[in-house]
Specification:
The complex is a heterodimer of chains A (about 775) and B (about 170).
Chain A (H helix, E strand, L loop, with lengths): L4 E6 L2 E6 L4 H7 L23 E4 L6 E2 L10 E3 L3 H16 L15 H9 L22 E3 L9 H10 L5 E3 L6 E3 L13 H5 L5 E3 L12 E6 L8 E7 L2 E7 L12 H5 L14 E4 L2 E4 L2 H17 L3 E5 L5 H13 L5 E2 L31 E5 L3 H4 L1 H12 L3 E6 L12 E3 L5 H11 L7 E2 L9 H12 L3 E5 L1 H4 L4 H15 L2 E4 L6 H6 L6 E2 L3 E2 L7 H6 L4 E5 L3 H4 L3 H10 L2 E6 L4 H6 L2 E4 L8 E4 L5 E4 L12 H11 L10 H12 L14 E2 L10 E3 L9 H4 L2 H5 L8 E3 L1 H6 L7 E6 L2 E9 L7 E3 L15 E2 L1 E2 L1
Parallel strand pairs in A: 1-5, 15-16, 15-25, 17-18, 17-21, 18-19, 20-30, 21-22, 25-26, 26-27, 31-35, 32-34
Antiparallel strand pairs in A: 1-2, 3-4, 3-5, 6-9, 7-8, 10-11, 11-12, 13-14, 13-27, 23-24, 28-29, 31-36, 33-34, 33-37
Helix pairs in contact in A: 7-20, 8-20, 8-21, 11-12, 11-14, 12-14
Chain B lengths: L2 H8 L4 H11 L11 H11 L6 H11 L3 H10 L11 E5 L3 H5 L2 H12 L12 E4 L14 E3 L2 E3 L4 H9 L3
Parallel strand pairs in B: 1-2
Antiparallel strand pairs in B: 1-3, 3-4
Classes of the chains: A alpha/beta (about 775), B alpha+beta (about 170).
Amino acid sequence: MSDDELKLTVDGVELTAKRGQMLIEVTDAAGIDIPRFCYHKKLSVAANCRMCLVEVEKAPKPLPACATPVMPDMVVKTRSQLALDAQKGTMEFLLINHPLDCPICDQGGECELQDLAMGYGGSASQYTEGKRVVMDKYIGPLIATEMTRCIHCTRCVRFGEEVAGVRELGATGRGEHVRIGTYIEKSVASEVSGNVIDICPVGALTARPSRYSARSWELQQAPSIAPHDSIGSNIFVHIDNGKINRVVPRENETINEVWISDRDRFSYQGLSSSDRILSPKIRQGDALVDCDWPTALQAAANALKSGSEAGSLGVLASAGNTLEELYLIQKLARALGTDDIDHRLGQNDFSGDALAPVMPWLGMNVNDLESLDAALVVGSNLRKELPIAALRLRKSALAGGKISFLNPADFPLHFDAAESLSARYDRLPEELMAIAIAAGADLSSLKNAPGGINPEEHHKRIAEQLKQGDRTALLLGNLAAAHPAYATLMAIAASLAKACNATLSHLPQRANSCGAWLAGVVPHRKPGGVALGDGGKTAAEMLERPMHTYLLMDIEPEFDAAQPAHAMGSIAAADQVVCIGSFLSDSWQKHASVVLPAGTFTETFGTFVNAAGAWQSANGIVEPPGEARPGWKIFRVLADSLGLEDFDYTSPDQITQELQGLCGSIELNNLQHVGKSQDYQRTDFGDKLLRAGEIPIHRLDPLVRRSVPLQKSEDGKQAFASLCQRELDRRKLSVGDTVSVSQAGGKVTLPVKLDDGVPENCVWIPAGLTETQVLGNTCSPVELS
Amino acid sequence: MNDTAEQMTQSALNQHSLDEINEWITRYPPEQKQSAVLAALRVAQHQNDGYLTTELMDACADVLDMPKIAVYEVASFYSMYETKPCGRHNIAICTNISCMLMGSDTIVQHVEKKYGIKLGESTPDGKIYLKVEEECLAACAGGPMMQVDHVYHTNLTPEKVDKILDALD
């Protein structure tokens, strides 16, 4: 037994514990049940509910197990008369003001208070006075409140302060008048707010979208993987009679701990959207009409064949699809003789493709993000892009790690950044150069780089932080990936990372961005990263000029494409557009030649490769609605209709295994750019007003776009033209005005918003919105009038 | 725009209040600015004829770099802060044990009758607010006693109370 270990006896059983542990941690690990409400293993100890009182020998009174450190030779009794009396007494007090409305409470059946009241409560109360009532305030479309039920454990308050880093809920008032809430009427705005629903031990905070819709004991639970961001959070899907009722986190210490983002939790609300495709469709004149599968498959096969014969078949697949679907669409495309396949619709610069890693990935495990000494995040609104990664990075910062940012806008953070640089979007490469120069990085391979870049103090400080720490990382986010000089950013980042001995990390955008690279859904690589000589057309090239035939899988060009207006023009001009997916977007309605309805992530077996390279598979949980079928089956029969061989899979895991075989020998290395000669791409738009923007958190993919509660939440409200105060003054605009925005031949009117995080001479207009689909790309000039 | 100028244009706190709060802030270590929250709320309440508004609490939160909810928690916890509109003269009659033994009930009844309002209410003209005093005001030797706008008055009789209250403007 080492020095920091000790022995104690609980209920007659000898246990070993580490010094400094609280009693409840030790008993939990040993499977000894002590009742509790306020204690939560991921939160600080509050010891305010008093439910975990236990008897400790030689202590004069019962002690709370959650706040009692273990001591050598301690003798604890959790079920002695003293302990049980204390627990029973506590329970009686907790129930004094509780409404006992379990029959109409959503928490009923999975309620910690209800469960413990069965074990520790009396059958009758001695309390005959009036109970207190708390009037509820509306705190947004995601969380329903019934604060009369609250027992003031403060888990939700501590979650906000300690985990989410946004204090929105608090305990106001005193004594009997204490209440948990926002005090004022306000929607909570944290991107991980839904977790308070899980940690609330009673029915005070419940999920609003699934409220009053099912009883918990009637639900079935199935494990799955969240299909949105590249963290690949583990989830449980709860099903009520074949219908998805809600989504909750599934604990995975190395990935999402016990949390999930609101996007992962509430996106399922989009599954039953009114434009869900229930049967195959085929175009007849201007109309898209329902048809049977054989007709649709034949039409799709004919279209693909004609595109292939014309030498002009463009394949665009979403990185939100399963690995199996991505692999099969790739296999189909290449069997039809085209390398024009891509998943990177939001990307503008593909000149770094040849040097790109086999799979741009995080370069570490997700949980490694919480123990970094220093990090520089380049081009990422991290909280909204990867909410769970941001929580991990926040832990690094709270532990003293120096986390800095270089972004096209100063985004609100939930921790203090060491340095937060915001430069106009086109200036990012020069700012990164300045840091690289300060770090003494070897930039000689970068030809025609601008001279005269002199690092300032803040650049030097960031360089120094990255060099000094043992575990440091340089993270490239989606705003870097969407930059018109992405290759240059990558090259500088690689040199900088090398000079600082930092890990170069990519923050992949979608649940299967990594998987799409491995599956060969890129024009220049086959599955397993095997390089192709010339390669095919990139997403941008495919959409720049119309192709004969497009094959779209879960792509909504009006939202997904970097140049939405232009892309829509190309799609409209195509001879044939074959669409495979779950939702009938406007563009499909207008331009699809044939539509094949596919199941979503809950309706098919599928694998997702997360940012850390973990292959995570989940089974289909419910049947696809109507005539929709799992994607892998659609490809199997489509290939059959096309007379292609080697598609005769009988189960989807055969597909996974086939790809696994192709990926067996690849080595992951994000530092391919180091030392390779390339031109510096200049992206200076001078004095012109520049548009910058991101794809907002709840506009990432077709499913979240259809989740009404998410769209109604604070993060769902994005259609603004945001400018800083000086820019507003210069243009004689004020908040509440509307402004007409012209770009790429399109024009839209947007309300003006003040955001002092946006640099001067720049306007922040998000992409992926209904309102902005008529515009061009971000990081290009725009006119306001 | 420097900090002070920004506060002048945006804060619900007036310059006098801001000066006073900034003076309080200097009394604590810079990383513990929020220690000045009690003083800041008192200043804010004084500026606004005896009660706090959400705007004033938000302004205090901004000055002290605190989450707004943390300021609401403090303001709603302490009975010295009023978070709803009330009369501008704050009259708190101590009803704790010593004062009660010395006849505070008579004083309360007298004042309630005098203004026609109950404890916890304000007169319609906004002049008088009868606070529900929850704490012992620590002047037990002079009970019954009351506090009128921060001033202690001890050994009260109904006549003495009339004299004190009638002198208020």
